[in-house]
Amino acid sequence: MELNDLWKTALAEIELNISRAAFLTWFKDTSAIEMDGHRVSVSVPNGFVKEWLENKYNKFVLRAVRNINSQVKEVSYVIGTKQLATQKNDTKYGLPTIARVSVKPANDISFSSEFELKDLNINPETSLNPKYTFDSFIVGSFNELAHAAAKSIVIKPGIYNPLFLYGGVGLGKTHLIQAIGNEIIKQNPKAKVKYVSSEKFMGEIVEALKNQEMNQLKEKYRAYDFLIMDDIQFIARTEKMQEEFFHTFNALYEKNKQIIISSDRPPAAIATLEARLKSRFEGGMIADIGEPDYETKLTILKIKMEKTGIVIPEDILDYIARTIKNNIRELEGALNRIVLTAKMNNCVPELEYVKKIISQIIYAPRKFVTPKKVIKTVADFYELSEKEILNKSRKKEVVKPRQIAMYLLREELKCSFPFIGEKIGKKDHTTAIHAYKKILSNIKSNLDLEEEIKIIKEKMYTS
């Protein structure tokens, strides 16, 4: 495998572990440029991206690269050209060279183009990816309300303002909100539409404050007819970000401009979101996107398969659809791996080999989860410190998260009740049993609690 292909495959792995918005923000315009011994050098567009990848995403990058080539021990980031380095002596970086030219998609999509970053054609003015359309969005019972609301906004902007879509990682939120923007542009090319992730928005605020350009930034955002904000939950981290977005929201709302928002949870579950923002969000339409059913997953796989031009047996598609339970992104990631294997080996892998590929996707993250990780994830979700979870406080806002932590330690890690009691507050095992049974019972009747625990588990296994 050449260095270029190694990086593309690693990117597919990284995309499974972070939000789509974060992936597009931080991995756009990156490429592997050199492998020297056990170190891979990655080209990045600027110092800001370099620092962010080193501090926040390096473990994901290194793990993804090592899953492909275990000889790699280090990944470094270099500001500069995207051009790939010339291979010395035609070395293939310790990986077997496999002929790939014999398997060709029916529509002549090459190996390279199939696995390019998916945002190369992003509109620089709107930041919209043209591949996200209503036509390519698969509708099922799990997302039909969100889809109907999105279509309604295109027909009659302002009918739901804001439109707030929420759901777990990789379920199609980004696809749907960008489809709205692309359809608006298609029908009215003069409309001022802007898609932005909350992380990008926060980055712009930081830069504007540093350069004393806040007025220009405010004018920029308040000139849009449609503002599409992805992963809004991240602005709840700081008061300044919330304040700026609140004023931007009000300015647009008062001028009857459409606001579209996505999040991994409903407004009420964003613990540190200010009441005034919760009120604004809840004043529009809130729609959730759940997990797809088997029939929908099979349909998605077949449509994606047709685009590659490679025929994959029905039993393999059936196995993927029944085994991948979490999200559509994992589903596509599994299919991409199988397509990649087929193109490299000139044949579709057998079911037993596919099972090994799927097991890597499903089970690999779980080995990184420890009791400490569970407690930290729960604490972070509810904006508490780990110390508060572990102490003996009886405050309502602490008791519930503590019981959820106990429940997850038992349900996910299969810890014994005496261990759980000792780990959390040095309590008796009966306290742990009570907490586990209470949460188990409440989940059956409390949909909000079920959603919160689902989000916590996603973060626990993917961050």
Automatic annotation (TrEMBL):
<dbReference type="InterPro" id="IPR027417">
    <property type="entry name" value="P-loop_NTPase"/>
</dbReference>
<feature type="binding site">
    <location>
        <position position="174"/>
    </location>
    <ligand>
        <name>ATP</name>
    </ligand>
</feature>
<dbReference type="InterPro" id="IPR038454">
    <property type="entry name" value="DnaA_N_sf"/>
</dbReference>
<feature type="domain" description="Chromosomal replication initiator DnaA C-terminal">
    <location>
        <begin position="370"/>
        <end position="439"/>
    </location>
</feature>
<dbReference type="InterPro" id="IPR020591">
    <property type="entry name" value="Chromosome_initiator_DnaA-like"/>
</dbReference>
<dbReference type="InterPro" id="IPR001957">
    <property type="entry name" value="Chromosome_initiator_DnaA"/>
</dbReference>
<feature type="region of interest" description="Domain I, interacts with DnaA modulators">
    <location>
        <begin position="1"/>
        <end position="91"/>
    </location>
</feature>
<feature type="binding site">
    <location>
        <position position="170"/>
    </location>
    <ligand>
        <name>ATP</name>
    </ligand>
</feature>
<protein>
    <recommendedName>
        <fullName>Chromosomal replication initiator protein DnaA</fullName>
    </recommendedName>
</protein>
<keyword id="KW-0235">DNA replication</keyword>
<dbReference type="InterPro" id="IPR024633">
    <property type="entry name" value="DnaA_N_dom"/>
</dbReference>
<feature type="binding site">
    <location>
        <position position="172"/>
    </location>
    <ligand>
        <name>ATP</name>
    </ligand>
</feature>
<comment type="subunit">
    <text>Oligomerizes as a right-handed, spiral filament on DNA at oriC.</text>
</comment>
<dbReference type="GO" id="GO:0008289">
    <property type="term" value="F:lipid binding"/>
</dbReference>
<dbReference type="GO" id="GO:0006270">
    <property type="term" value="P:DNA replication initiation"/>
</dbReference>
<dbReference type="GO" id="GO:0005886">
    <property type="term" value="C:plasma membrane"/>
</dbReference>
<keyword id="KW-0067">ATP-binding</keyword>
<comment type="function">
    <text>Plays an essential role in the initiation and regulation of chromosomal replication. ATP-DnaA binds to the origin of replication (oriC) to initiate formation of the DNA replication initiation complex once per cell cycle. Binds the DnaA box (a 9 base pair repeat at the origin) and separates the double-stranded (ds)DNA. Forms a right-handed helical filament on oriC DNA; dsDNA binds to the exterior of the filament while single-stranded (ss)DNA is stabiized in the filament's interior.</text>
</comment>
<dbReference type="InterPro" id="IPR013159">
    <property type="entry name" value="DnaA_C"/>
</dbReference>
<feature type="binding site">
    <location>
        <position position="173"/>
    </location>
    <ligand>
        <name>ATP</name>
    </ligand>
</feature>
<dbReference type="Pfam" id="PF00308">
    <property type="entry name" value="Bac_DnaA"/>
</dbReference>
<keyword id="KW-0963">Cytoplasm</keyword>
<feature type="domain" description="AAA+ ATPase">
    <location>
        <begin position="159"/>
        <end position="291"/>
    </location>
</feature>
<dbReference type="InterPro" id="IPR013317">
    <property type="entry name" value="DnaA_dom"/>
</dbReference>
<dbReference type="InterPro" id="IPR003593">
    <property type="entry name" value="AAA+_ATPase"/>
</dbReference>
<dbReference type="GO" id="GO:0003688">
    <property type="term" value="F:DNA replication origin binding"/>
</dbReference>
<comment type="similarity">
    <text>Belongs to the DnaA family.</text>
</comment>
<dbReference type="GO" id="GO:0005737">
    <property type="term" value="C:cytoplasm"/>
</dbReference>
<keyword id="KW-0547">Nucleotide-binding</keyword>
<dbReference type="GO" id="GO:0006275">
    <property type="term" value="P:regulation of DNA replication"/>
</dbReference>
<dbReference type="GO" id="GO:0005524">
    <property type="term" value="F:ATP binding"/>
</dbReference>
<keyword id="KW-0238">DNA-binding</keyword>
<keyword id="KW-0446">Lipid-binding</keyword>
<dbReference type="Pfam" id="PF08299">
    <property type="entry name" value="Bac_DnaA_C"/>
</dbReference>
<dbReference type="Pfam" id="PF11638">
    <property type="entry name" value="DnaA_N"/>
</dbReference>
<feature type="region of interest" description="Domain IV, binds dsDNA">
    <location>
        <begin position="343"/>
        <end position="463"/>
    </location>
</feature>
<dbReference type="InterPro" id="IPR010921">
    <property type="entry name" value="Trp_repressor/repl_initiator"/>
</dbReference>
